[in-house]
Amino acid sequence: MARESVLHAQSTQVSMAEAMNVDLATWQGWESGRRPLANIKAGALLHLRRSLLAYGADPSVLNLLDAAMDADRIIGATLAPDPERRHPLADWVHTRDTAHMINWALNGTTPPALADRPTKPIRGPVAGAPLLPPSERGRFFATLREASEEAVRVGGDGTLLRRQALYLCSYDKSPEVASWMAHALHARRDLAATRGWTPHWAAARSTATALVRLGDNQPLLDFIDRAIVDDDAAETANLNYWAYWLGAIRGPQANDGFMRDRPRDWEPVRLLYGLVSGLHQAPGYADLYVHSLWALLTAHRWLPLAAPDLTKQLNGRTEQLLGDRRISPRSRRELSSVHYVLRENHP
Prior knowledge:
Helix content: 55-70%
Strand content: under 5%
Radius of gyration: 21 Å
């Protein structure tokens, strides 16, 4: 699944197995996905990570192992559900890296964190990408749809599962599922019309962003105008959501409640980097990225001084977007404010 492509073989499988002090079948099993890496003992996994680092593996790629194993757990629990256990999507809030790993296995889309990295040919039984067979992809989405519908019947305890399952279902490209998704998400469009912070705020945000993937941008524009702007609690929730999604909040979160808290332990520079990168990578969400950047720089006007190279990149992108008629009038006004803050701190 996802993790085998994160493990970066420097030469041959034989030499890697020898370097990691494991037998060849074990190494090949990790690469091919036959042996789940998450099933080995915690001490052995820690030793493996340290050994890979000493052998020259990229630390930023090694950091993706957690997201890859989370993705494998979600995929595995969906393909082979255990009636005695809660679905992992109901247990914790997953991150963007986890979502990208899942999409890699479902659609073959390389995660942005790995997209520009060169790969070396590997001898042995390992796939070129962690793509699930069509039958398993179909079963994954079918089971996820069932889990989403069951979560509605469960009520409050199923809120997190429903929100995250619907978001992942939007990765399904098949026409019949697109119709189901459109119906399921449009049935929740009223969430995006609520004012300010509510207990369903996170679900409304996920619904609006998932609809963008289906080609409907209006709910997201409505959500920004009605459920974020001019509401301090909602503005805080939006930045907290982004901080966790983009890795600026390091610790795992069991539910969406952390979004209500005042920012404490997240890293503003890391969040700025994530938002600027997303503004380039996901133009369909430009209005949400623009508003979030405006809110972040309004709250932390010193940020351009802390990241001058990133500021230069954002300044150029801001100038491009100011001439883009596809963004909303509000986004254009906020971009002008962002442009002013950048020029004020980085002439």
